[in-house]
Amino acid sequence: MNLSEELLAQLQGAPVQQMAQQLGAGTEQVQSALGQVLPVLLGALGHNAAQPQGVADLLGGWLGAGAGSSDGAALLGQILGGARGQVESQLGQASGLGDKIGPLLTMLAPLVLQFLSQRAGNLDAASVGQLLGQETARVPQPGGLAGGLLGGLLDQNGDGKLDAGDLFKLGAGLFSKR
Fold it and tell me: In the chain, how many domains are there?
């Protein structure tokens, strides 16, 4: 069972019903959306963890303080960066939740980080990086919603390919935030 499936299993039942009620959406619709959203969030975290100092930042910053944080919007901004609007738009359209996808993502960001924090409690930084890397590799890159969104997060120059130019821009963006 991969991380997305494991987290989805933990959210079954009352958590999904509560999210659906808060969003004013159907339980089945939220359940279906989670199957699309979780791979994107975990894949984006995997991408962030693959950057220089990524796992250290993830463990030290996001998981340390983020796991207890209730500010889902700020956490989501850290996870998705400048691609947040595009991700919300595409996921909202694909899931049928429309503008309710933003609040769902905001609810999920702290839950995903809490889940990773629990998993990281038994793992070292290299193991967490490897685990997230495996999750990123599971997302189909060329097709599928999750693959397309993750590719969009990584493709910084919009040429449809992940290449050295994209990696350079990602790295420069990371260092300019510090």
Answer: 1
CB 95 within 8 A of CB 101: yes
8 Å CB contact between 86 and 95: no
Mean pLDDT lowest among 26-30, 48-52, 63-67, 125-129: 63-67
Model's pTM, two decimal places?
Answer: 0.71
User: What residue numbers bound the domain in which 166 lies?
Assistant: 3-176
CA-CA-CA-CA torsion for 128, 64, 174, 87, nearest 10 degrees? 80
Annotate the chain with DSSP letters as a single string. Answer: --HHHHHHHHHTTHHHHHHHHHHT--HHHHHHHHHHHHHHHHHHHHHHHHSTTHHHHIIIIIIIIITT---HHHHHHHHHGGGHHHHHHHHHHHHS-GGGHHHHHHHHHHHHHHHHHHHHTTS-HHHHHHHHHHHHHHS-SSSSHHHHHHHHHH-TTSSSS--HHHHHHHHHHHHHT-
Dihedrals phi, psi of 46, to nearest 5 degrees: -65, -40
